[in-house]
Design brief:
single chain, alpha/beta, Rossmann fold, Pdz3 Domain, 2 domains, 8-stranded mixed beta sheet, 6-stranded antiparallel beta sheet, 14 helices, globular
């Protein structure tokens, strides 16, 4: 885990200028030559409506999105350029629809009072992150998201907590929707049945989880575990859709706001997930905009992936990152579990696996996500960090060898 330091005022100024240019320079952008086969031109918008990725004018994409009730901006949570693109797009949309509300997947709804006080200017950045339990609730580097939060506060744009507690989705994953008492559902209504194509996607994800856990046998679509897995995912989608719909309807007495959701792309792709649940809630006026790698295969069929995608070129890191494991942690009671291990990461190279429960780091017992993050952040480059984890019924000793700084 690491924190990226940003110079807020400079970045916001650059993004605002870029947004102005994106709107004012539409004709020039539209006149640029289209990308060749098998590639995309960075900093350009494309439409996947026809199954191909056809280049479109960015200003028209933004104008059309601003006419909708809800705009969903996707992301890969740990991709810095995705968040920079989100900030740029937010700034452009706010010029077109000044009355705006921004919802964030990164916050469970119990934290709504904290978001309100942040917008009111009552907290410093550190106080805000402390009050939201950032290192426990979301765990991704706060520096990736902080410019978005500062943009909202600078412009007095209400922020809305879209998520629910992990305990709810975990309970659904264990026993299904019906097994969770209504009083524990945080007000979430029964999710709409997922489209067949979404089930296909979720089944592929489920099979990968089964393989990573080392379970025997070939998983099937009729497995109770898979049905519960789908129920948990659709509960998550439903919760975020309900929060977005509520933000729209709660403010209908005045000028109708543009409600923007900052959400992981997996909840948005092909109109599944959150967009599907929004339609079931009676909110069909939705635009989905996604970032995409400029090295994507243009020939790959992507019909309906999103209303438009923005091509982002890969770039070298601006500075050598601090030692990072490449994991996502989750805390349940006093247990800290690896819920994701990034392929090619230091964690994977060290032998850590998804589902491992951290027992100790450097001999110290670990019962909170914050303590695990602090231990990794404090580890100097070029040194070895011993960890003990529980995998199944076995305790394993893992040595993480942090590389030397260049």
């Amino acid at each position: 885990m690491y924190t990226i330091r940003v110079t807020l005022h400079g970045e916001v100024a650059v993004v605002l200028a870029a947004a102005l240019l994106a709107v004012a320079g539409a004709n020039e952008a539209h006149a640029r030559p289209a990308a060749g086969p098998g590639c995309l031109e960075p900093a350009s918008w494309y439409s996947p409506a026809t199954g191909r990725l056809d280049k479109v004018a960015g200003a028209e994409v933004l104008r059309e999105a601003a006419r909708r009730d809800v705009v969903l901006l996707g992301e890969q949570h740990d991709a810095a350029d995705h968040h920079r693109w989100q900030l740029q797009t937010l700034a452009a949309l706010q010029l077109l629809r000044p009355r705006m509300v921004i919802g964030f997947e990164s916050f469970p709804r119990r934290l709504q009072p904290v978001l309100d006080r942040w917008i009111a200017g009552e907290f410093s950045e550190k106080e805000f992150l402390d009050q939201t339990d950032w290192d426990k609730v979301w765990t991704y580097p706060a520096g990736l998201y902080m410019p978005l939060f500062q943009f909202a506060r600078l412009n007095r744009i209400p922020m809305v907590a879209l998520n629910v507690e992990r305990s709810l989705t975990e309970a659904v994953a264990r026993g299904g929707w019906e097994a969770v008492p209504e009083a524990q559902r945080e007000g979430v209504s029964r999710p709409a049945a997922p489209p067949p194509a979404y089930l296909d996607t979720l089944f592929e994800t489920y099979k990968q989880h089964v393989r990573e856990q080392g379970r025997e046998g070939e998983p099937g679509r009729d497995d109770l575990d898979f049905r519960n897995f789908v129920a948990a995912q659709t509960t998550w989608d439903r919760a975020m859709a309900e929060a977005l719909a509520r933000a729209l309807h709660d403010r209908e007495r005045g000028e109708r706001p543009l409600v923007v959701g900052i959400i992981g792309s997996g909840h948005l792709d092909y109109g599944h997930g959150v967009p599907h649940q929004l339609r079931d809630l009676g909110v069909p006026s939705v635009a989905t905009l996604l970032p995409i790698s400029a090295s994507a295969d243009c020939a790959e069929p992507r019909t309906g992936l999103a209303d438009a995608v923005f091509a982002i070129a890969s770039s070298p890191p601006e500075q050598a990152p601090r030692p990072r494991l490449g994991v996502r942690l989750q805390q349940s009671n006093s247990e800290v579990t690896l819920v994701d291990v990034v392929p090619g990461s230091l964690a994977e190279a060290s032998g850590l696996k998804r589902g491992d429960r951290i027992l100790t780091i450097a001999g110290n017992a670990i019962s909170e996500v914050g303590a695990a993050i602090a231990a990794v952040r404090a580890q100097p480059a070029g040194t070895w960090l011993p960890m003990r984890v529980r995998r199944g019924g076995e305790s394993l000793d893992i040595i993480v060898k942090f590389p030397r700084e260049p």
